[in-house]
Amino acid sequence: MLKLVRNELQKIFAKKSSWILMIILLGIITLACWVVAAVTPKADGVTLFSVTTSFNSFVTIFAVVIAAISLTEEFSKNTIKILLTRPYSRSQVLFSKLVAIMIYTLCLSLVTYAGSILIAMLFGNANGLTTVSKDWQNLTPLLSGFYGTLNNYVVTLFYIGLVFIFAGGFRSLGLAVTMGVGLIWLGSMASSLLSGFIIWKKLFWLKWNPLTQLYLNYRFGSGVIHIEDKLDVGYWPNLIAVLVYTLIFYLIANWIFSKRDISYS
Description:
- This protein is an all-alpha fold and 265 residues long.
- The chain has helices spanning 2-14, 16-39, 45-52, 56-76, 80-84, 90-123, 141-169, 173-201, 210-213, 235-259.
- It has one domain.
- The longest helix is centred in the middle third of the chain and has 34 residues, at 90-123.
């Protein structure tokens, strides 16, 4: 099993796109800090760091793209048949891909976090980054940003579980990526609309739906939003709910992948 995971990691990091996406993300953060520093000369490191935290959603988007490529390429290049001739089950093959993508996403998240700190200090300074502040949930900006990165990582796993369903069921890479990225962009809007409907109709038992639980992504960092008291289930129940939904999506994807006919792939 470890050999499978190692093989999948080699595939991911051997792709130029895996590195290009990482460079693009750091480039976007650098450009954003440069623009803010140019427009606001007095902007300090904390201000610039708060700007970089808003780009966590790009980590999710890029991870979804890599997840879709990892799975659909096996069918488009017909290498899935080679994989299945080895002494591994389809479930093991899919799980190894999930673990490899989780590791890549973690690397992407940590590189983005570390890069954000360095870039913010480059265009600003380190003043205030290690100072406890009410604006950062009574934590230091660095610690609050780190928690935000971890929360975004968990939510990214949620979307990866979804894209596995699409990638496992569709033969088209473009369709799998479009569906995954589309859900990310629409997720926030749909979550707000659904939350408003729940409050309006007082159907508070619906707060456990997957879209409402994605508020986990906004609990830390400069992008904190107010969560209606009757919708707020608390941090740990929220975290567990996201992980449970992710597991459910993965099990559905595993069932689809196990049943899929590969004779015409």
